[in-house]
Amino acid sequence: MLRDEPTSWPVVGTRDIHRDNWVVAVREDQITTPDGGEPFGRLVVEHPGAVAVLAVDVDDRVLVVRQYRHSVQANVVEIPAGLLDAVGESPLATAKRELQEEAGYGAASWTHLLTTLVSPGMTTQVFHFFLARELTEIGHGDFVLEHEEAYMTREWVAFEELLDAVLAGDVRNGATATAVLTYAVRRQRGDLS
């Protein structure tokens, strides 16, 4: 069967390069090969994981937000997404929370689309993708939008328009592209009811 195989090479030393109360930490591990070769260093960005929600309405429109992302200095078109930063919360529960907090919507129908390793050569981040349907506007609850989120805008876009923008390289957010392409393929294959 074709699948990733969990394993671990021997770690002979580790040191923190950056660790604080924020989301990510960076460490350097000294590892050896399974046969005991010479140790070598690998940087690891520790990340709690994240979710992304492709919210599709009855008119085949997708709910997107535009959010300023300082690292790329752009207002980026994205689907609602967020961190697995609540202790004990499942990816699905996080997806439901993020859809409400970021977009003010709830959904009666949820489908897991895909789970990916974002960049396994350097980070522990796992991304869980969900399809949300049967949407209802419910407000943000007691969540307060601040910093960049306070300036987010929300809009509905025809799925085909969003797919075209992803394929043209005009919408480049990795989570958005992954969700859109996965949905297109799974829908074409008849995997989604």
UniProtKB/TrEMBL annotation:
Keywords of this entry: Hydrolase
Recorded GO MF terms: hydrolase activity
InterPro entries to which the protein is assigned, alphabetical: NUDIX_hydrolase-like_dom_sf, NUDIX_hydrolase_dom
Annotated Gene Ontology cellular component terms: cytosol
Necessary cofactors: Mg(2+)
An individual GO BP term: ribose phosphate metabolic process
Species per Swiss-Prot/TrEMBL record: Nocardioides baekrokdamisoli
Organism phylogeny: Bacteria, Bacillati, Actinomycetota, Actinomycetes, Propionibacteriales
Pfam families hit by this protein: NUDIX
Source taxon at top rank: Bacteria
Gene3D superfamilies, alphabetized: Nucleoside Triphosphate Pyrophosphohydrolase
Name of the protein in question: NUDIX hydrolase
SUPFAM superfamilies according to UniProt: Nudix
Annotated ranges, domain Nudix hydrolase: 45-184
